[in-house]
């Protein structure tokens, strides 16, 4: 996936060693983690959705009248194949709408429906690889005082003490019940990613840093300096859909020019 600003600058990170061949997930862009986030379940890491071929809906429902000014969009559809049904026997339909506003805002709306099978439960994340100039000059605001699960310490629960999150080593956390907005401030590029979300209570923050990067075959050894994952997610309280029910998860990211001060 590529998302460029009006200057043609790429806003999402893609590894120079990314493998574009299923079933390997691409290292970069915004992989969809469904029906499982992480390895907290019986499925492969981050579920199967990101490794599958989706279809484009050639005749998608129109945008709501109050939401169509200058927007371009595409709808992608995922339904379970016989292969998936073997290990995740649930009849779902997943419609992903990706749209770009006239102001450059990226919106992703997921609508996942239980098509009248038995109830099913899932966790979810928009695994968003942001391109940053230098991770040591990035700060994240909006997570202050929140509890988080730390994947580096067996998912133990801690409380964020900082006035903003900065990066000096590997970070792999799930911040819980996070309000809007979250600001990812890239001092080097003097820009801020302002993240708003709906239906996505949690925020995952991940940077592998140097040691972990060396163990990731599809990530350059130094590339951790130029990426940061900040994912709108459902982790702590997975979603259960009864037959006929639908869940919606919306992510909106607007990139704004920002000086060194960063009040959002
Ligand atoms: O971002 C959370 C996380 O689960 C990390 O623990 C790390 O494994 C990352 O996702 C990347 O996962 P992937 O399967 O894309 O290599």
Automatic annotation (TrEMBL):
It catalyses: alpha-D-glucose 6-phosphate = beta-D-glucose 6-phosphate. Substrate binds at residues 27, 45, 50. GO terms for biological process: carbohydrate metabolic process. CDD domains: D-hex-6-P-epi_like. Keywords: Isomerase. It holds the Pfam family Aldose_epim. The keyword Zinc does not apply. SUPFAM superfamilies: Galactose mutarotase-like. It comes from the Eukaryota. Its EC number is 5.1.3.15. One of its GO terms (molecular function) is carbohydrate binding. InterPro entries: Aldose_1/G6P_1-epimerase, G6P_1-epimerase, Gal_mutarotase_sf_dom, GH-type_carb-bd. GO terms for cellular component: cytoplasm. PANTHER family: APOSPORY-ASSOCIATED PROTEIN C-RELATED, GLUCOSE-6-PHOSPHATE 1-EPIMERASE. Belongs to the glucose-6-phosphate 1-epimerase family. This is glucose-6-phosphate 1-epimerase. The lineage of its organism: Eukaryota, Viridiplantae, Streptophyta, Embryophyta, Tracheophyta. The gene is LOC110790338.
């Amino acid at each position: 996936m590529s998302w460029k600003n009006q200057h043609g600058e790429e806003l999402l990170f893609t590894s120079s060693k990314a493998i574009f061949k299923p079933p390997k997930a691409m290292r970069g862009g915004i992989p969809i983690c469904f029906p499982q986030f992480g390895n907290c379940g019986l499925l492969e890491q981050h579920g199967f959705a990101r490794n599958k071929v989706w279809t484009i809906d050639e005749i998608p429902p129109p945008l709501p009248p109050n939401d169509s000014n200058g927007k371009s969009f595409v709808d992608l559809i995922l339904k379970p194949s016989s292969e998936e049904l073997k290990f995740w026997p649930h009849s779902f339909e997943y419609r992903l709408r990706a749209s770009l506003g006239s102001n450059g805002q990226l919106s992703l709306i997921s609508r996942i429906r239980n098509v009248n099978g038995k109830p099913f439960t899932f966790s979810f994340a928009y695994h968003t690889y942001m391109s940053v100039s230098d991770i040591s000059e990035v700060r994240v605001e909006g997570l202050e005082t929140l509890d988080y699960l730390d994947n580096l310490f067996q998912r133990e629960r801690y409380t964020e003490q900082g006035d903003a999150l900065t990066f000096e080593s590997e970070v792999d956390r799930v911040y819980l019940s996070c309000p809007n907005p979250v600001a990812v401030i890239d001092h080097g590029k003097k820009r801020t990613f302002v993240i708003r979300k709906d239906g996505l209570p949690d925020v995952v923050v991940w940077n592998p840093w140097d040691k972990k990067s060396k163990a990731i075959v599809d990530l350059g050894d130094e590339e951790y300096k130029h990426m940061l994952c900040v994912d709108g997610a459902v982790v702590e309280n997975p979603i259960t859909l009864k037959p006929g029910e639908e869940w919606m998860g919306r992510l909106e990211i607007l990139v704004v020019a920002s000086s060194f001060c960063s009040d959002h």
